[in-house]
Amino acid sequence: MTSHFFAMLSRMKYIHRWALMRNSYPENISEHSLEVAMLSHALSTIANVRLGKTVNAEKAALIGLFHDAPEIITGDMPTPVKYFSDDTRGAFKKVEDDAAKKLLSLLPEDLRSTYEPFFFECEEDAYLHKIVKAADRLSALIKCIEESKTGNREFEGAMKGIRQRLLDMKMEEVDIFCREFLPSYERNLDELYS
Distance (Å, rounded) from C-alpha 85 to C-alpha 74? Predict the structure, then answer.
């Protein structure tokens, strides 16, 4: 039997983010998902090493890697549209869940249970999903910083809102990352290398 799951996932590179914004350079969900996976692992590691928590960093990274996979089917819904109202958010959540189910149905049945936790939140992984949400927001903030470095003022409002949403999460691992690692994104290559 032929499975289309991974061929479908490879199409993440064709789904562009920030559709309502003028971008200095485009970003697709494949690039974004890799960054979210790395940031999820970093936040989990900070939580474990610095804060004495017990977070499965590898699973957080995998959840981050797959977190936007349903957008292969749904496309990237702009945040102002997605969160316009509770009704809109609820309807879009159902569409996302249906898309995730469709993607999982492309796997051979004996592999589905391995991938399902990366697509759907369960109670035991609630904190991992919170970390991935924070990583998703950090990735968006990094995009805003990078656009700002090119002189693109289009992302100024988004940057302010994302910073506030990160603060509102009240996650110490996020605060540590923002304090110790985020300032480096403001620098150029020569400044990073020296």
Answer: 18
Largest CA distance in the chain: 53
d(CA 110, CA 121): 20
Exposure class string for 34-72: b at 16+ Cβ within 10 A, else e: ebbbebbbbbbebbeeeeeeebebebbbbbbbbbbbbbb
- Do 73 and 99 touch, CB atoms closer than 8 A? yes
Architecture of domain 5-193: Orthogonal Bundle (1.10)
From the list 19, 20, 41, the residue with the least C-alpha distance to 28 is 19
Instruction: Quote helix, strand, coil % in the chain, to nearest 5.
Output: 75, 0, 25
Quick one: DSSP state of residue 107?
Answer: S
Spans of all domains in the chain: 5-193
pLDDT tens digit sequence for 141-178: 999 999 999 999 999 999 999 999 999 999 999 999 99
Q: What burial class does residue 147 get, using C-beta atoms within 10 Å of its C-beta: 0-12 exposed, 13-18 middle, 19+ buried?
A: buried
Tell me the per-residue pLDDT of 61-111, one tens digit each, with 9 for 90 and over.
999 999 999 999 987 776 666 666 777 788 878 989 999 999 999 999 999
Q: Judge if pTM exceeds 0.90.
A: yes
At residue 80, the pLDDT reads 65
